[in-house]
């Protein structure tokens, strides 16, 4: 008799996930800029170029829509994010390079249509300038300087403009507006490589959002796990400005480390039952595939609020924390149950992220409505 395959649960890290790597917006921008620069040097834009990534590896990129005009050339590199669910996958990173015979021999970098404009301090970028992060900025300039060496050597300067058709729409799927980056996407990439589900860009945006709030002289930050919990938190704390609200997603450690480093005095967490349980477990990252929810913890909280023993055992055997929330809600124990989980979460967060800040946890239901708010001062 054939063996029955072992069940892989929702939270099991062994679930099949794509492994094909891709390239960042910064890497594609550098490739497009390199190709356009070669167009000025050679009189034609090549269909393939080799560019050096920020991690120093050399990679060949396909180039489309190349053209050469009088003292300028353009090229496009289409982003392939690999198996990462990236909002900018398929973006046409477009570069136009203009030759200026001014004798300065420099490379200037500008942002065009679809590249966001920085409007707030705290990002390490110039307010009013393009949202091209420092590492890809250096990388683009270095690649252009190498490709355009014959022009620069004779004193010509090169003006590089990066644009992204449709970047405004892509930006709506990112946190750019919350970071004060308006009108398009950011050009990102510390290595040039996009690894599937690494979500490094999201983690970085969480840290940046905290830094922006601190630069706006805010001493309170509200971390939420998604859109519904953020709306719940905004309704619950209407006196706070939008800049105080940060969707941390699954990145508890990154969010709290940034908040403590920036000296936040009050840290509020809004979450639904599943993420709230994982925060109580002390997880640094709460994504479902990283680690399963602790059903013993949920069962203990259910017992604490008076759930019958049959339900406690059902909760312990259930696949999700939502099962416990729904069953206890039918018994009128929703508020007590979520309070018990919130208290556990506060104790876990206090032990892992010490500091002078005070903690508040807001538990929300699945419709994004508040269930209970627990202040650290309420704990024994």
Provide key terms for this protein.
disordered N terminus, 380 residues, elongated, 5-stranded mixed beta sheet, CbiD-like, alpha/beta
Arrangement of strands in the largest sheet: 4-5-6-10-7
Uncertain parts: 1-17
What fraction strand? 15-25%
Helix vs. strand class? alpha/beta
Amino-to-carboxy terminus distance:
57 Å
Number of helices: 12
Number of strands: 18
- Average pLDDT rating: 90
**Shape, per Cα inertia axes:** elongated
* Rounded radius of gyration (Å): 25 Å
Largest sheet: 5 strands, mixed
Helix content: 25-40%
Tally of discrete structural domains: 2
Write the H/E string, N to C: EHEEEEEEEEHHEHEEEHEHEHEHHHHHEE
Molecular structure report:
The chain has 380 residues and is an alpha/beta fold. It has two domains: 22-194, CbiD-like; 200-378, no CATH class. The protein contains twelve helices and 18 strands. The protein has a five-stranded mixed sheet, covered by helices on one side. It has a five-stranded mixed sheet with strand order 15-14-16-17-18, sandwiched between helices. The chain starts with 21 loop residues before the first strand and ends in a 5-residue tail after the last strand. The model is unreliable at 1-17 (pLDDT under 50).
């Amino acid at each position: 008799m054939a063996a029955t395959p072992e069940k892989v649960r929702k939270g099991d890290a062994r679930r099949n996930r794509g492994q094909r790597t891709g390239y960042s917006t910064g890497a594609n921008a550098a490739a497009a800029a390199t190709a356009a620069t070669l167009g000025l040097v050679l009189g034609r834009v090549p269909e393939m170029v080799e560019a050096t990534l920020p991690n120093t590896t050399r990679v060949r990129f396909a180039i489309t829509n190349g053209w050469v005009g009088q003292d300028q050339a353009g090229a496009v590199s289409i982003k392939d994010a690999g198996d990462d669910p990236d909002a900018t996958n398929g973006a046409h990173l477009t570069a136009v390079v203009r030759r200026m015979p001014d004798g300065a021999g420099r490379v200037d970098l500008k942002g065009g249509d679809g590249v966001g404009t920085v409007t707030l301090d705290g990002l390490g970028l110039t307010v009013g300038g393009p949202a091209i992060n420092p590492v890809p900025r250096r990388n683009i300039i270095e690649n252009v300087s190498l490709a355009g060496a014959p022009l620069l050597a004779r004193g010509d300067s090169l003006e590089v403009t990066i644009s992204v058709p449709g970047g405004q729409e892509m930006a709506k799927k990112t946190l750019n507006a919350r970071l004060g980056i308006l009108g398009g996407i950011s050009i990102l990439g510390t290595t040039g490589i996009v690894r599937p589900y690494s979500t490094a860009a999201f983690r970085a945006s969480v840290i940046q959002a905290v830094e922006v709030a601190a630069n706006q002289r805010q001493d309170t930050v509200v971390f939420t796990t998604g859109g519904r919990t953020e709306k719940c938190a905004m309704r619950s704390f209407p006196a706070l400005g939008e800049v105080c609200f940060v969707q941390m997603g699954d990145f508890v450690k990154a969010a709290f480390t940034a908040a403590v480093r920036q000296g936040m005095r009050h840290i509020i967490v809004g979450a639904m039952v599943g993420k709230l349980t994982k925060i109580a477990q002390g997880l640094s990252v709460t994504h479902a595939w990283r680690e399963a929810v602790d059903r013993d913890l949920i069962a203990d909280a259910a017992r604490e609020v008076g759930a019958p023993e049959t339900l406690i055992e059902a909760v312990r055997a259930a696949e999700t924390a939502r099962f416990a929330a729904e069953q206890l809600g039918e018994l009128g124990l929703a508020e007590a149950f979520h309070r018990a989980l919130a208290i556990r979460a506060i104790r876990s967060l206090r032990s892992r992220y010490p500091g002078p800040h005070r903690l508040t946890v807001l538990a929300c239901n699945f419709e994004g409505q508040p269930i209970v708010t627990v202040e650290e001062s309420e704990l024994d």
